[in-house]
Amino acid sequence: MSELRLVIFDVDGTLVDSQAEILAAMALAFQSEGLALPERATVLSIVGLSLAEAFQTLCADIGAPRRARMVEAYKDAFMSLRTQNQEMGPLFPGALDALDVLRAQDHTLLAVATGKSRRGLDKVLERHGLTGVFHSEQVADHHPSKPNPSMILTALNETGVAPQKAVMLGDTTFDMDMARAAGIKKIGVTWGYHPAETLQPDAMIDDFAALAGTVDQLIGV
Length: 221
Prior knowledge:
This protein is α/β, with parallel strands linked by helices and 221 residues long. It is built from 9 helices and 6 strands. 43% of the residues lie in helices and 12% in strands.
């Protein structure tokens, strides 16, 4: 019988192309404080961090009370966009098929480690028919921001999987650094929000079709 193994997924920029809604919510958050929105690349560079850490990075020169208001404005904007039936970010091509391949393996468990809130992740899972797919769901509400390894360590504890049988899939240096700190393997994707050359993963994939084989190579069949 094969030893249990765990594949941990980032969400924004890895499973879901959420840049349009992130940028729209950020624009409203900055507008709420009369501030100019940074360039697109700068905003996307903080995707994956918790909101408090994200605004600390983007607005280090303003006071903590203003940043706290911007966090709340961002959350309100995000939910308002969805209430207005704005289309949520789509899954990246091949994501659903890749999840189905891994789900069909009795010895493979799936998890999520995301900078989203519990409410935000629930909305994404519901929208894409992924509720109940993941055996462990780690969100920003209950952990320090990435790259702290808390999310991964909790997922390992919840699933009972050994670190050498786990791998993280992500698109940012935050994901890779988190996996490195937790002592697990890491797979980078080329379609995300951080330049691929900055990731330094154990393996890089250009397409979700390559995921299952890459997982086998890194943590065994």
